Every structure is written in structure tokens, then in C-alpha cells.
Carotenoid cleavage dioxygenase 4
Amino acid sequence: MDALSSSFLSTFSTQKLLYRTTPPPPPPSLSPILNVRIEEKPQQTQTTKTKQPISTSTTPPPKTTSQTPSSIRSSSSSNSLQSTKRKVEPSVPALIFNALDDIINTFIDPPVKPSVDPKHVLSQNFAPVLNELPPTECKVIQGSLPPSLNGAYIRNGPNPQFLPRGPYHLFDGDGMLHSLRISQGKASLCSRYVKTNKYTLEREAGFPLFPSVFSGFNSLTASAARGALSAARILTGQIDLSNGFGQANTSLVLFANRLLALGESDLPYSVKLSSNGDIETLGRYDFDGKLFMSMTAHPKIDSDTGEAFAFRYGPVPPFLTYFRVDKNGVKQPDVPIFSMTRPSFLHDFAITKKYAIFADIQIGMNPLEMIAGGSPVGSDPSKVSRIGVIPRYAKDESEMKWFDVPGFNIIHAINAWDEEDGNAIEMVAPNILSVEHTLERMELIHALVEKVRIDLNTGIVKRYPISARNLDFAVINQAYVGKKNKYVYAGVGDPMPKISGVVKLDLSKGDQRKDCTVACRMYGEGCYGGEPFFVAREAAENLDAEEDDGYVVSYVHDENTGESRFLVMDAKSPNLDLVATVKLPRRVPYGFHGLFVAESDLNRI
């Protein structure tokens, strides 16, 4: 999971991180952020006759009377908890453990490297917002929102409820959903935490309980100390792992009339949007008890069959497990892949109509690095990357085939398809050229989008560069997942993990060994966005619509003014022309992945 890097925006204001060694208790009306305060200057206003104030709606969401399905393990926290939470004095064991935690973070394993120093990682618009935002009206300041966007654009990302006392990695924050509800040309923004077990336990305690997964175990000493502290918290009842410890901070998927917030270290969390645009967490979702461990944050949905395909990976055999879910939401049996002989960092994969495709890359678990004081997850330059291909309806791994693809290291996959003769597959993905920097020096990453062709009979692998630019967070028209597609919309890293613009690629030009960029929009100096998302124009009513007939949308933040906006771009135009710009009532931090849910689908959730 990496983050990346177009001409716009105006007034809100910059944020500063002020760290304290001994934080005062937070006032009851504020979110309990420890060790840090984010100061946001008042929004500047211009004296113009046409200026209209942004109105806000604070009406609480209507109570639901529907019963929660048995496969959803209900969250004990609700949206109303934000303002009604009673301050609880920490117990004596909690005070002792917090003091030990401070000793570990100060003397044993302080955040020395910039990649795990909260003052560096959570600077600028990576800083979390202080509290949740109820549905709040937004102003369309340019153009108009098209009817195809009636629904909600929702983006997931990390927003730590408590800022860390010690090392922190960008991937470690609590999941927060930023939803822009659009109806009849009007928009409202809502930002809510995914009420995970981790979030709920820590909010009730009033301080962090769980160590950072990506940054808290960077040496044997640090691992032993934090492991012992976590064990003590478990034994004294401060931590309950029976309901998971994930943050659900990576992505979302709409499947079988369920909207799921995903993070690959835990089960999905089921969420829903109310009629006024508010977000409610329903609880962990285990597919009627058939999913008892984690799953990928990037499942693939076949729009023709309605099926979902997914996997999980881990540090113990089987290092990879593949599975699918039928169109009715019934999970099918696991297919363990024992031919993956060592743990690998498998964040994403691809499907075709006949196969599922996995990349065994040079990033994986590396205990020797941890002994030397490095991260337990790192790169191995001696490892030869491989691509694994298995029939997508396989019941076991007997037909799994592996192909060596030296130097091919992907974090995200864009798409894949079968060639017409059925003897070959093609896959498109950004290849991380400087893989050793993936988790620690993301600003040094360069991702080169490649098309890879594998002859399944001969084993011959051919690779074609699609663009020389630094591109990632690429998306396609979702109706073409697993099928041959022509167009890709990708974020421009400048440098990663910031996205300074979006480009449109024409894959049909890929075999000509030239840059396939056919459209581009840069956001402007100091302006950065996130993953673009393609929304088809009236797709349900127009089955013959062209692949690129639609809109590209994204949140964009102006670091010069501190203001965030929502951009709607014409996907067919050569300059990705702006169709509409929505001024957001407060900044939206940089995040990870999102999706658009049409109004008709929202009504079925």
C-alpha cells in the first residue's frame, strides 16, 4: 500500500504540529488527541457581495430499527459517542503500563528515522483532523454536479485518534471515511471513524493501547518490550483481541448489497450511509462465520457474474490463501497456496475471466533485518520476483503455475485479461523500480506502469513500459475488471506519497514502445490529490456507452491555503476538463483508496 502524488484551489489555512512531552487532559468537547495539537487558522473570508456562508447540518442521524445480521459482529461504539463519552480515570495498571510505554518510546526505541517519526509522517495534510464531521453542506463553486454522480464518493484513509507517543508509520492510523453525498446537484461532506474494536477500546480507555504494526517492532529489543507490554495489557483485560485489532483504514468495496471498509490485518467492517449522508459502522463482517481471519483490502468484483475474489497472506504457512465469494455473498472454501514458500508482501492481485494472478515480490518478512535493528518487513535483493497464475475456480493449488519475472515488484495491480486464443494472459501494474525504499523512503519511489504478457504454454514473459512517469493509484472503468480494457487513470507521484495530478493512459498503444499518455491534468503548485476514481456516465441506462464515457473524481488539497476541494473531470476530454468543483467545509487529509456508490446501490445497503 503506497500513497502518491495537478491547477487549483484557495483559502483555509496551514496546520502546525505542536508536540508536548506531558499532554494536558483533553477538554470534553474535543477528540482525545495525545501528544499533539493541530492548530488551524480561521478560514479567511473575502468581502464580496455574492459570498454565501457555508451552512452546516448537525441533525443527528435517524435511528434504525433494522436488525443486524448474524454475520455482523456489532461495534460497541456509535457516532453519538463522539460528544457524550464520559471521561474515565485510568486504573493503576493502566498508569503503570503507560509509563512503561513512555520508557520504551523514549529510551528503548525512539522514533529516530524520519519514516517513523510522527512529526515528519504526520506533517502538512497528512496530519489528522481533530474530530469527526457530521453531514455538512458544501458549495459548488464551479460548474455543476452531473446527475451521474447522484450517490456518494467515499474515500478511506488513516486518521489516528490518538497521536503516537513513539514510532508511527503512515499505514498505522485509525480508518476514517470521508464521504461526499451528492443529490440533485448538491453535496454534503461527512467524516467518520470506522468504529473498529481497536478504535472503541482505545476511546473508552482514553489513550493508545495497541502498538504500531508497521513501526513498533524494528528490533529484537523493541519487539520484546512492546510484545511484553501488549501481553500485560491483555492479561489485565485492557486489550481484547477476540474482536480483532485492525484499523480498516485502506479501502472500501460494495458487494452483495454490503458496503465494507477494509484493512488487510482484520475482517472487513460493514458500514452504511443514512439518508442525510451520515456514516454508521454496523460491525465486523465474517460472511456468516466462514471468514475467521483477515482478507485483502483489494478484492476484485466481476461485474458480469457478481462474484468477489479475494485472498489473505501472513507470516506463517500457508503464506497465501485464495478464496472467492459467490454473487449471493456466500464465501466458498479456502484454497491454501503452499507453493509460496516464504512470506511475501501481497497487497493486491488481479483476475481475468479464467485466472487469479498473484505477484510474489522482493518485499517480505525479514527476521534477520529485525535482529540488526531494521523493520521486520523489508526488501530482499537476492530474491527473484515471480507471478503465480491459478484457475479462478480452483479447489486446490494443483494447477498453480509460477513464472519468474526478475525485478517485477508491484504493490497495486491495475487489471488483467485473457488473450483471445486462451493461451496467454496480460497484466498491467505499476512496477516499483526502487523497491528498497517502498516502506521507509517513499519520496524516492518511482513506479513505472508496465504491461506484462505471459504465455501459459511456453512460460515466455514479455514486458512493455506504458509510461515513463512516476504513476500509481491507478483505476479503470470497474465494468472492465478482468476483461481487456483500453483506458487507465493514474495518479502522478511528485514525489510519492503525494499526487500532483492525474493522467489518462491508452493501453492499446503499449505495444508500440512509446508513452501511452493521452490526457493529463496537473493540480497546480502546492496542490495534491489522492487516488482518482472513474465514474461511468449513466452506465445503468446506457449499456453501449464507451469505456471512457464518464468522469474522474478526486479530493484535492491546496497546501498554500489549507483548503480542500472535490474535483469532477471529464474523462473523455484531452485535458481532463473540469466539470465541477466543490469547496469542502474543512480539509480532507491525504488518504488511500475510495469508491463511488450510486444512489440506487445506497438504497439497497
